[in-house]
Specification:
It comes from Afipia carboxydohydrogena. This protein has 14 helices and twelve strands. By secondary structure, the protein is α/β, with parallel strands linked by helices.
Amino acid sequence: MKLNIAWRDGILRRWFVALLWLALLPAGLGILSATPCLSQTPPSAAGGELVIGTKVAPPFAMKDENGHWSGISIELWQHLASRLKWNYRFVDAETVPALLDGVKAGKFDAAISAISITAEREQTMDFTTSYFYAGTGVAVQADRISNWMPVIRSLTSWSFVQAALTLLALAVGAGILIWLFERKANDGFSGGAVRGLSSGVWWSTHTMTQRAAGGIVPMTLPGRIIAMIWMVTSVIAIAVFTAGITSTLTTKRLHGMVNSVSDLSSIKVGVPAGTSSEIGLSRLRIVHSLWPSPQDGLKALRAGKIDAFVYDRPLLAWVIRQQHLSSVEVTDLMLEPQRYAIALHADSPLRKRLNVAMLEVVESDWWRDTLFRYLGTTR
C-alpha cells in the first residue's frame, strides 16, 4: 500500500514539474527575443562593415581628387566609429534627397553630411541627437552702387506714402481749425471758404516746416492756442518722421535690399534644389527659383539673375570664402534655425549607441578644436 502511494506521488511530482516547464517556456523565449543586445548588434560586430552615405557639402563633407573624405561631419563620424570600434566605408550620393532615400531603402546604414532635421523627414526615418546648430543665411550683392535700388524702393513704398499722408492730414487739420477761429477776425484767412481754407493749410504747412507764412499770424486767443499746440505737435511729428526715414534709408543703403523676411517677398530669390532651405522658403510662402548647386546660385546672383540667394549659413559662407567672391556677402538675417544630425532608417539599432557617444564627443575639447579649424568658431 505504501509503495503504491509513493509511486503515485512520484508520478504526480513528475507531471507537476513537466507542466511547470511548459508554463515557463513561452516566457523564457519572450525574454530572449526581447534582449536588446541580440537585436541591436551593428554589422561591424559580426565582422562586416557599415555603409555610410554622404554628400559633398563643404565644410562638413569634402572629397579630394584621390577620393579621400574630410570635413566637420566626416571627422565626427570617424571619431564616433573609432570610439565604438565599428568598421565602415563611405559611399557618396549626388543630392540630399538621394542620400535620405538610400537610408530609407536600406542602401546605407547611416547618412552624414550637412543633413537638417525636419518634421517631414522625421516622419519616415530617425535621426541622432543634433551635433551642430545652424540657420538659413541670405547672400546678396555687396556692390554699394547697386544698393541705391532699395533706397528708391523705400521712397516709393506704401509705408513711406502712409507717413507722408499722415503729415499732410495733420497739416490740413491744423489749417482747418485755424481758419475756423480766424476767418472773422483776421483778413489773412477771410475771403470765402476756398481762399480761407487754402490760407489756413498754407499757414499750417509753413509752420510745420518752420518757415514764415507771408506775415499771416493768428490774432484771436483760440487761434493762438491752436497755433501753439500745432507748433509743438509739428516739431515732434517732423522729428519722428525724419528720424524714421533716415534710419530706414541708412539701413537700406548700408545693408542692401534684404533686412527682414518680408523683404524677400518683393525680390527675386534663389535656393539650391532639394535642400531644407527650399522647404523653409516654401513654408514661408516666398516665391523662389531653384538652382542645381550653391555655386550655380551664387553665379546667378553675381550675374543679376536673382537678387538674393538662400542656403544654410555656414555652407554659404564657406563657398563665398573659398571662391573669393568679394562682390557677394552674407547678410545678418537668419531665417530658420536648423539642426544637423546623422540620418538613420526607422528603428535603427545604431541610434542608441551613437547618441551616447555623440553626447560625449560634442562636449569635448576635440569637437571645439574641430569646429575652430574649419569655421573659425567653436559654435
